[in-house]
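TL;DR need structure tokens for one chain.
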Amino acid sequence: MARIDRRNLDGILLLDKPFGLSSNQALQAARRVFRAEKAGHTGSLDPLATGLLPVCFGEATKLCGLLLDADKAYSARVRLGSRTTTGDAEGEVIATSDPGSLRLEDFRSIRDRFLGPIRQVPPMYSALKRDGRPLYELARAGEEVERAAREVVIHELELISLQDGELELTVTCSKGTYIRTLAEDLASALGHCAHLSSLRRTRVDPFSHGQVWSLDQLREMAEMGLESVDRVLLPMSAAVVGWPQVRVPEGVLHRFARGQAIECPRVELADDAAIAVMNESGVLKGVGRIAPDGRLWPRRWLGGAISA
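>> reply
TL;DR here they are.
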């Protein structure tokens, strides 16, 4: 196989992850299209899920960890009447019920129980780890371990339709929310079984606008030259929309890049809150925090190599 010449590339891709690929497989496919040296994503999607997967290239990979806490939105279809080992259509059926009498109004009558802060028990088929091993590995080996319930927040829950035994809904929620578990819990509250039949992520804050690109679209553009496909990338500053920001002169940025605290305009923030550090042209160069003495300390440098 011919060696691919990688290149340093900074930016953010709004990738439409296809059905059947893991998030890492989709990321690596996008990385090959762009021939990027470094790539990372801001939060996994299950292989059977589709939709928005923000992919960060180059210096933007340093933002991935800071974006994991973002709220997300999904559209989902829930198959009523059967529960599976995985909570989705991939698993084996382990329990059944007859949902023939269920109506959309039944789900709407319990909707408010699932709004705001709720507690979820993470599924066994998840990437959470126990003693260094992902839970899904234990589940595939036939093991089940006790999982502590975790608090998540459901900001919005719209129950759209119920037809032919499938409930269609949309959810806006906090990080760490398992839509598979939400589907099971909704049905369980009415004494029934259910599993997730399809899931699409429609939003990851702060990327609520902008076109989402499929791998096929990207490959087609790349055939016309890398400059064509590069045009779809968002600048790193798209990741910090809504953050407090300060602009710092280039000469002062040099000290910030070397890990030194710098003076900055007074900004009222909570302790240790992240602040976007821009150059005078508005290009994102780093992430900092304001110390109690008012000085700006570096958390991440995003400006690349530092000259001597």
